[in-house]
Amino acid sequence: MFVIFLGLPGAGKGTQAARLASQTGLVHVTTGEIFRENIRNETDLGKKAKPFVESGRLVPDEITIGMLLDRISQPDCADGCLLDGFPRNTSQAAALDEALSAQGRAIDKVVYIKVDEEELVRRLAGRWSCPGCGAVYHETSEPPKEAGICDSCSSKLRQREDDRPEIVVTRLKVNMEQLQPMLDFYRAQNKVSEVDGARDAEVITDALKEIIAG
Ligand code: AP5
Ligand code: MG
Fold first, then answer.
1. SS (H, E, C) 95-139
2. Is the CB of 194 under 6 A from ligand 1?
3. Per-residue pLDDT tens for 76-127?
4. Nearest listed ligand to the Cα of residue 34
5. What residues are annotated to the active site?
6. Mean of the pLDDT values across residues 50-61?
7. Closest ligand 1 atom, residue 126 Cα
């Protein structure tokens, strides 16, 4: 099963995909995390992606599409995956459809996690992530047991470079421009379910599980 998580920055795509992956066994594929890992490791891909990621703009399709198609052709995605952060525009959506259809596969569901802009800004300003295991916290809604320290692996938590307020403005603008055309693209295929993402994370996970099972 291939499930796409659509939503603006801070909507909870990563949080929900991680929760569902641990509860369902489906693999969580996140393009943002692939880019950040390559930037940390200073790979060629990381060097190309860095100026885009750190300024809140989309990495060009020539780089992103090939990287994602390569990732989902790995054996752990043979039965599908949860796609978080891809596609980001209709060219990426069309390239994904084409690649899956060539293998006799298709996207099964698209979930749009909807959250208003004020709450998105609040979430991004208070997000702390673990560089060790990737766990994500929020200083008020999902705090770690000890401030600044990961509950799971005890690494020191960090804030993302692109969560600085001036970069958040760009990320929201760039993603808002692309969201509606993507929703139209998948609504034409009757694949979109909309979820109210302003509720507690557990309630949203239950709603997503029902959608995926249905
Ligand atoms: P990416 O890493 O995907 O960033 P994003 O889309 O901006 O989304 P976020 O990760 O910021 O938000 P999220 O929805 O995952 O929220 P989270 O669960 O963390 O991409 C980064 C960059 O990489 C892009 O800007 C671009 O440059 C590049 N890139 C990636 N993919 C690309 C592509 N396909 N094409 C081109 N470029 C690409 O939650 C946020 C916070 O809220 C956390 O603190 C969390 O604890 C809290 N929270 C979550 N749920 C709840 C809840 N229900 N209630 C209260 N708090 C909550
Ligand atoms: Mg994320």
1. HHHHHHHHCCCCCCEEEEEECCHHHHHHHHHCEEECCCCCCEEEC
2. no
3. 999 999 999 999 999 999 999 999 999 999 999 999 999 999 999 999 999 9
4. 1
5. 13, 88, 127, 160, 171
6. 98
7. 44
Instruction: Tokens 């995390």: give the residue.
Output: 33
Does the predicted TM-score (pTM) go above 0.90?
Answer: yes
Domain boundaries, the chain: 2-26+79-213
* Ligand 1 lined by 204 (C-beta under 6 Å): yes
- Give residue 214's pLDDT: 83
State the DSSP H helix or E strand holding residue 81, giving kind and residue range, or none if neither: strand 81-84
* Ligand 1 pocket member 144 (CB < 6 A): no
When the candidates are 3.40.50.1260, 3.40.50.300, 3.40.605.10, 3.90.770.10, the CATH number that belongs to 2-26+79-213 is 3.40.50.300
State which amino acid sits at residue 56: G
